[in-house]
Amino acid sequence: MQLPRKLAQAVPGLVFDHAFGREFPDPEELRQYAVAIHCGGCMIRPQKLSARVERLCAAGIPVTNYGLALSWYEGKATLGRVMAPWGGTDGS
């Protein structure tokens, strides 16, 4: 729970919800959220991860993965290093 702890320290009052296992909220339920940080994509089939991302997109919810969110939290230099293989070098 490294990232939730860090984000809670940086943004007091931030509220986290967790979805575990096979169930994932439908787009109507997802609309209450400002952003989704998906962790565990390596533990499920690519089709299931794609379906979840599509559901989030249908709800208009920005989505990222845990590693990118943690890199963003650590700062522009860290995020830039992580994104460098894809051409993102400035961390923005």
What labels describe this entry?
92 residues, mainly alpha, two-stranded parallel sheet, 5 helices
The chain-level mean pLDDT equals 87
**Helix count, per DSSP?**
5
Category from helices, strands and their pairing: mainly alpha
**What amount of the residues lies in strands?**
5-15%
Second CATH tier, the architecture: 3-Layer(aba) Sandwich
CATH topology value: Rossmann fold
Quaternary structure state of the chains depicted: single chain
How many β strands by DSSP? 2
How does this structure look, described?
The chain is mainly α and 92 residues long. It has one domain: 3-Layer(aba) Sandwich (Rossmann fold). 47% of the residues lie in helices and 7% in strands. A two-stranded parallel sheet has the order 1-2. Helix 4 crosses helix 5 (76-83). The chain is globular, with a radius of gyration of 14 Å.
Quick overview of this protein structure:
By secondary structure, the protein is mainly α.
Question: How would the blueprint of this fold be written?
Answer:
Elements: H1 2-10, H2 27-30, E1 36-38, H3 46-58, E2 63-65, H4 66-74, H5 76-83
Parallel strand pairs: 1-2
Helix pairs in contact: 4-5
